Structures are given as structure tokens and as C-alpha cells.
């Protein structure tokens, strides 16, 4: 079905979702000089050894790849986490042009694109939905994306379209260094639940101009609707409200 919220007016989301003005909303601008190095933060372990992808779809807000998540084959652990978190899906945010597109900004600077790897705490919660409503239910790894690497063809132009997409290992999307910033935040799309521990990797990954052009050819709309290009599907940075951003590395 067609969703009620639109990226054209993120400042209006609070009318339907009052939590939009809550105390731990995402994304944020990460001011690198104000991040606090925490030597007690463990290194992040990303165990994507299996190719458990299921499908790729246009959910009307982004392009999303979903994973089989009935066991702990594809998880992240370490970092600020006590439990392993299972990969549920990944998706992208991007701009109409290169000067914008990411959700998190670093020292006020946006990137053309941002990748979100969404995981849930299956040790503590029975379902993804239950975890998504809990303050410690989700872990999202955010990767800033700059230009370069070609990832895949996309055949899911219209909203609501889905294609089989198997045997893809998201390990190939990761940068060399897993140095990160971490803070307590929220989903960046309605319902904006404050359930996310964010991990924002310091090192950006690369994406090709051609790939970004493919993203920009996707549509927010379904086949019978008037076509609206899927671009600028990002929420701008939200107030920090006293939160501290911790760094796993000493700058
Ligand atoms: Zn996202």
C-alpha cells in the first residue's frame, strides 16, 4: 500500500509521529572533535560468512535487500553490544545530486549516499517487530558512501516491486577499517522508534556514478501513479539533546 509519510516534508512527520521531536532522534551531525574516545569500547565484529540474502525490493522509500534471519549466521557483535545482533535488511539513502544524500553528516558535511545495515537483538526479543519497539532492540551500521564501486543491477523501479536476490554477501560492502562512532538514536523513517544503537563507520565506502544514477531512476510511486523520482530520501540531522557520541578510536 501507499504510505502516508513523504520525504518531501520530514519536518511535518511529528504531526503523525510525535516521537519525531523526542530526545534520541536520528540521524545527527557527528562533530568529530566533540566525540569522546572510549577505550572500553570493543572492536566491532562483523560476521557475514553466509550468503543469506532473500530478495531486493522497492518499498516506496528506498531499495532494500532482505535476509534470512532465523539463526545467527549473519550477525554483528562486539562494539558496544553484549549480544550478537542479526542482520535483517540493508537499504540506501541518496540525493538528487552529489552534494547531499547521506543522513548522518560528519562535521556538517554530507555524503552523496548512506548505506544502513539493520540488525536486531534476537537473544532478548522474539521477533524483529518486538525488537524494533525496544530501547535496546536494534543495531544499525551506517556507512557513508562516496563515488566509485558498482554493486548490482536494479530491476525494481516501481514502489511495491520485489525480485529474488539470493547469494549476496554484504561483506563486500564493508570498508577495511571498522573504526566507528556510536550513539543512542532512532529509526530515521516513521515510526521513528527510539530503538537503535547507531554504529557509524569512520571510513567511507565507494559507489560508482553509474550505480547512483540507477538509484535515482527508481520511483517513489507505483506503476499506476504519476511518476515521482526516488531521490533525496534522507532525513536531515536532528538535535543532539545532550547525547554523547563515543568513538572507538583515538583521533
Ligand atoms: Zn536508513
Automatic annotation (TrEMBL):
Domain called Alpha-carbonic anhydrase: residue spans: 3-249
Cofactor(s) demanded: Zn(2+)
Domain of life: Eukaryota
SMART domains: Carb_anhydrase (SM01057)
A Pfam family it matches: Carb_anhydrase
UniProt entry tagged with the keyword Metal-binding: yes
Gene Ontology MF terms in the entry: carbonate dehydratase activity; zinc ion binding
InterPro entries (alphabetical): CA_dom, CA_dom_sf, Carbonic_anhydrase_a-class, Carbonic_anhydrase_a-class_CS
Keyword Metal-binding: yes
Protein EC: 4.2.1.1
Sorted UniProt keywords: Lyase, Metal-binding, Zinc
GO cellular component: cytoplasm
Catalytic activity: hydrogencarbonate + H(+) = CO2 + H2O
GO biological process entries: regulation of intracellular pH
Family the entry assigns: Belongs to the alpha-carbonic anhydrase family.
Known role: Reversible hydration of carbon dioxide.
Protein name: Carbonic anhydrase
Organism, as annotated: Anser cygnoides (Swan goose)
